[in-house]
Amino acid sequence: MKSTPILGDKKTPVKFVVWSDFQCPYSKKMEQMLEDMVKLNPDKFALYYKNRAVHPSAQLEHLSALAAQEQGKFWEMHDLLYENQTLLVQLSRTEETQEQYKEKIMEFAQQIGLDLNKFQKDLEDPKFQARLAEEMAEAEQASVYSTPTIFINGYFYGYQAEGIKEKAYQLLEKKDKLELTFGEIESKLDRMIKFAEQRKKRTEERPRGPEQGKQYEFDLTKAPVIGNPKAKVKIVVFTDFQCPFCERMAGVLEEIQKEHPSDIVIYFKNFVVHRSAQLEHIAGMSANSQGRFKEMHDLLFGKRKEMIEASQGDPEVFKNKILELGKQVGLNANQLKKDLETEKYKELLEADGKEARTAGVSGTPSVFINGYFYGFDPEVIKSKIKEELNK
User: Fold this and answer.
1) What pLDDT band is residue 191 in, cutting at 50, 70 and 90?
2) Closest Cα partner for 68 from 31, 119, 124, 23?
3) Do the bridges between strand 233-239 and strand 366-369 make them parallel or antiparallel, or are there none, so unpaired?
4) Which of 21, 114, 197, 348 could form a disulfide with 147 if both were Cys (CB 3.0 to 4.6 A apart)?
5) How far apart are CA 338 and CA 312, in angstroms?
6) How much is the CA Rg of the chain, to the nearest whole Å?
7) Helix 25-40 and helix 74-83, axial crossing angle in degrees, nearest 10
8) Looking at beta carbons, which pairs linking 178-183 to residues 24 or more positions away fall under 8 Å?
């Protein structure tokens, strides 16, 4: 098994370790910036890549990158996967397009000159599945739950691209410090790369996703609810306001709930995969306390792209954007402002996240129907809801 993929020279003074997901648009943006930095400054920066498949549908892409690495073409496959991200996301999300999805991956392998027989064999090799599982466990032990997550010389400096870039150049300016701690830096990176193996000996294996056929129970006492709590079909959805798949799933669930208003109830739980969405989730819970959760929920998803862009800039501008949305849905502006500034619901968000991870939830949206988990495909979810209605 080959080691962690590296772009650049491992002897460079500043080293990035990026935990990434091939279907995450933020990972694509962050890695483009980091790759440019490495290519423009090959004597200063190096990039280590670690797999964190937040979106379960991206697993084949991560496996294909590892299989390409076996033939010395990791970065070539890596770049093609990101360049075609939108198409691959679409193809990977439904049963009807799974064959097209696999064919597209094989096209990429041929395009970069891989031995296709070996590539296909490696995709099915259990050792690569094991490596992904180990890196997922390693990520959780390091509290890496969202992508992209960047470490610079073994230290975490946040999620903002410009902040990462600025910190990297600041480190370059402190050459004396870098030279004095070079051995320590190498030691930290070595420990990160070997982290999964070390932790595996000391901790129990963590869950790899909600168990099929197991009925889960969640604390719904503080969860926003749409519908009749006594309804026959109870849906619990773990969601992230900046997740495009959550936006789509929300529409699917709302549509079927409107068709059966007396028989379906939806409970919303916070699972903040994108850290920049946390303030939006606090706003959602503030709106819930004022009886306006659904209105705020719909507006946050309706303005999702605008909110993502705002969240990447000035925090005050982002907060004011949320306050504007609050006014649009008729919230008490003073109360919302106070809740945002004090992060009143931060503990509730953390409790929801902990509950999700305990159940094995690793991505959004994750939907449970009467306590059972049925995957991530909206069409499968609709079919299972209808099955429950007909019982």
Assistant:
1) low
2) 119
3) antiparallel
4) 21
5) 22
6) 22
7) 130
8) 178/13, 178/14, 179/13, 182/13
